[in-house]
Amino acid sequence: MTDAVDVQETDVIEACAIARDLEEFDLLIEDLEEKLGAKWGGLDFNNAEDILRSSHADTLKFITIALDKTDEDDLTFVANIVGAAKDRNIKIILVTHDLTPISLHQLMRLGADDFVPYPLPENALNEAIDRVLQEPEEKVVIKEVFVQSETQQTTANAQPSKQGILLPVYGMSGGVGATTFTTNLAWEMQTMLAEQGKTVCVIDFDFQFGSVATYLDVPKTEAAFELLTEVNNADAESFKQVMSKYAEKLDVLPSPQDAIPLEFIGAEDVKHLLNIARSCYDVVIVDLPRTLVSWSEVVLNECELFLSVVGLDMRSAQNIQRFMRALKSEDLPFEKVQFILNKAPKLTDLSGKSRVKRMTESLDIEFRWQLSDGGKPVPATGDHGAPLAEMVAKNPLRKDIVKIAETFAELCGDQDIAEAAE
Predict the structure, then answer these.
(1) How far is CA 141 from CA 229, 335, 355, in A?
(2) 8 A C-beta contact, residue 200 and residue 167
(3) Is the dihedral of CA 126, 127, 132, 135 positive or negative?
């Protein structure tokens, strides 16, 4: 392996691999040597920033930053390295092993251009390099700006569009409480972010049997169906006009009055609709149907995090296995998926705790959050069309959802979302 500080002056160094201990990422070394030969070098976190800010980096086209779970305790070095590379207009590819989605999202917001999981899938690094070196190309994960028509530019100039984060919620099997989680997460986040002048909306993408409108007691109108019928003609103004409101605080796009096919709109329509929503709101929470359709891939690619609610049962376990196998076979970003266990066993339930451990080990996953069993008040509150906070504020499920909402609110509150997307 060539070292960036020891190469001969005649060698043109085009790339650099940076890691706490690069030898732990032997597959990365092999792929870089195959791709670039001797035209790359290796650095560690201690000297990388200084090198990137010196003349040694004049010929660099891109860098890879390799991280694993042990690096999450202190990402300061990585943040400084990303900043130094961005100052020199050097592309950045993250190579991550067991990094949590929260940390990955923070690094992408700092300015990383792409990421690949480790161990590296075949050709994954080559494809990432090709993507980031194209001029210009879309940024992965965050940078997807809604393009307005000329007739909308005046409105845009008067009221700059947002670049909201997208959080889809997916129930791994029927009855796991995904819609309950969706509606209550949206309400808690709106309550928290309102103090910062930020807004949240919740969209029901289960066009056939969506129940977000029921859980939040808002009407299903013909306007929602008309919006889906003419998505290509929709803009930010028309999108906001069809939104219903819960308690005059939370904007809701309910599913249509009548059941329509999930394929009623295509992938490009869904992408356009999500871009509009993100241009209007700081946080867009989407309740997804259980059925995977052609546009499910769009939602996964566009979102920052993909929240999957599961139960402690065989149905969920089997569906997780199928779901992850499908993502990996299509080379989709499975690292975005965060599993949330609903009705988790109590601390004293040793048998339940053992089942959780066996489930995570057998499926090779981890539960980012575990939600308490809120008991009978939870469905009763849903039947009344109100969030848990409005009727049973001390319910243990509500307390757990508040903690998750606080985590996401911090991601939104440390700086402007539009600035973070740049």
Answers:
(1) 27, 12, 34
(2) no
(3) positive
